[in-house]
Amino acid sequence: MPQMKPLYWMNLYIIVLLLLVLFMVFIHYLFIYKCDDIVSLNNKDINLIWLW
């Protein structure tokens, strides 16, 4: 089946995008969580920027 419906590709694209966004948010939250343990209160402003 070389030719597929355009709708299929659209759905695939949207799903991949959603997964990517979720992954990025997860990474950012992990990063903030790790920094909270190590870094002092001075860097809290920088961490908030990561949260969009």
UniProtKB/TrEMBL annotation:
Domain of life: Eukaryota
Membrane spanning stretches: 12-32
Keyword Membrane among record annotations: yes
Keyword tags: Membrane, Mitochondrion, Transmembrane, Transmembrane helix
Designated name of the protein: ATP synthase F0 subunit 8
